[in-house]
Amino acid sequence: MRIYLDMCCFNRPYDDQIQSRIRIETEAKVVIQHKIKNIECELIWSSILDFECSKNPFEEHRMAILNWRNIASTMIMIDTSVLERARNLISIGVGKYDALHVACAIAGGAELFVTTDDRLIKRLRAAAGVVAMLPQDALAYIEKWYEN
After folding, report:
1. How far apart are the first and last CA of the chain?
2. How many domains does the chain fold into?
3. By three-state DSSP, how is residue 54 classified?
């Protein structure tokens, strides 16, 4: 399964873990990353992930996240087709950076877009081309928890 994790997902382990939701999302994201390392899933990386990561003021976090670039099976650069898709997403209310992430995920053939952003997931329900989920829902989907 080809997966795209957006930057808020990569940053989740660095958020305050007091809230149970944040802890659960962090644990699910870590399990998904374990599956990527074990080649059970493929990670898609993008130039917008590079850009956003470069803005992280914490060098340790930035370097840990950038290591995933080397593990990714696919690197998507922003081109005219990605920009066109991003413009379409912006027209339905998706933010600029989020639109670029989603457009890169689609360009990379992602079967799953993983984010911790509830509003983005709601907006993407109206968009074709990508299935967006919270980390815990994505893990359930990957592991087929609810299939009989």
Report:
1. 20
2. 1
3. helix
Pairing of strands 132-133, 74-76: unpaired
Q: Which tens digits make up the pLDDT trace of 25-67?
A: 999 999 999 999 999 999 999 999 999 999 999 999 999 999 9
Residue 148 within a domain: no
Asked if the structure places residue 120 within a domain, the reply is yes
Report field, pTM of the whole predicted structure over 0.85 = yes
With CA atoms as reference, report the closest residue to 89 among 103, 78, 75: 103
Of residues 64, 5, 73, 7, the one with CA closest to residue 39: 73
Rg of the chain taking only CA atoms, in angstroms: 14
Burial class (CB in 10 A: 0-12, 13-18, 19+), 100: buried
Q: Which residues pair with 4 in a beta bridge?
A: 44, 113
**What CATH number did the domain enclosing 45 receive?**
3.40.50.1010
| Tokens 């005219």 found at | 80
